[in-house]
Design brief:
alpha+beta, 35% strand
Length: 96
């Protein structure tokens, strides 16, 4: 099993409405991208300085499935939108 974790830092001033919209767009990918087994997306409530704004944790059967997801047109649409509202993202992929 492959785990794909992405943390997001939104641009300063990004509204809660936009954050929820991004969360929903990401969650919809489970039904749109074959090979994406499951996904959890959470908006952060911690107030620590080191905290990120949102995280997604997703599972794939193989690295090939993760590669397919990474280039899938529906995923790429969401990525392009996220680039307009996120200051930066961080990713970790590993086999479990």
């Amino acid at each position: 099993m492959v785990m794909h974790i992405v943390m997001f830092q939104f641009n300063k001033g990004t509204s809660e409405v936009i954050k929820q919209e991004v969360k929903q767009q990401i969650e919809q990918l489970v039904d749109l991208v074959p090979g994406l087994l499951n996904m959890k997306v959470g908006l952060n409530f911690a107030q620590e300085e080191r905290a990120m704004d949102m995280v997604l944790i997703s599972h794939f059967e193989s690295r090939e499935d993760l590669d397919f997801y990474a280039t899938h047109p529906e995923h790429l649409k969401v990525v392009e939108y996220i680039k307009t509202v996120a200051e930066y993202t961080k990713v970790v992929d590993f086999e479990a």
